[in-house]
Write a structure and sequence with these properties.
- Helices cover 17% and strands 40% of the residues.
- It has helices spanning 58-69, 83-88; strands at residues 6-10, 19-25, 28-38, 41-49, 72-75, 92-93, 99-102.
C-alpha cells in the first residue's frame, strides 16, 4: 500500500438503507464500503475499490479497520470469485452462505 487510506463514516438516514464508509487518500476518493452498523456487529454488503486503485491493499486495509472497530463482521452473500479474499482475511463460511469473522475475547 503506497499511502494510508482515510476512512469516513456516513451513517444511514431516512433516505438511505445502508451505512457507508468512504475510503480516501489525501486528495482523492478511492472507494467505499456499503454496510450496516449494528452495535458491535457490522454487515458488509460490498467493498468497492475503484479500478485504478485495486491491487494496492486498500480492501485489506478496510477489513483491518473494521476488525479494530467491531467484534463481529459479516460478509453478506460473498461472490464465489471473492471467497479467497474473505478466507485469507480470517472469515469462515456460514451455513446461510455468508462469511463471518469474530474477534477473540
Amino acid at each position: 500500500m503506497s499511502q494510508t487510506p482515510i476512512f469516513t463514516d456516513t451513517p444511514r438516514t431516512a433516505l438511505a438503507d445502508y451505512d457507508r464508509i468512504d475510503i480516501d487518500l489525501p486528495d482523492v476518493r478511492i472507494g467505499n464500503v456499503r454496510c450496516r452498523f449494528l452495535g458491535e456487529k457490522v454487515v458488509v454488503y460490498s467493498i468497492q475499490i475503484f479500478p485504478e486503485f485495486q491491487g494496492n491493499g486498500y480492501g485489506r486495509a478496510a477489513i483491518d479497520m473494521l476488525k479494530g472497530r467491531f467484534r463481529v463482521i459479516v460478509a453478506d452473500r460473498v461472490r464465489f470469485t471473492a471467497r479467497n479474499f474473505w478466507e485469507h482475511m480470517g472469515f469462515v463460511e456460514q451455513p446461510d452462505g455468508n462469511w463471518e469473522y469474530r474477534r477473540a475475547g
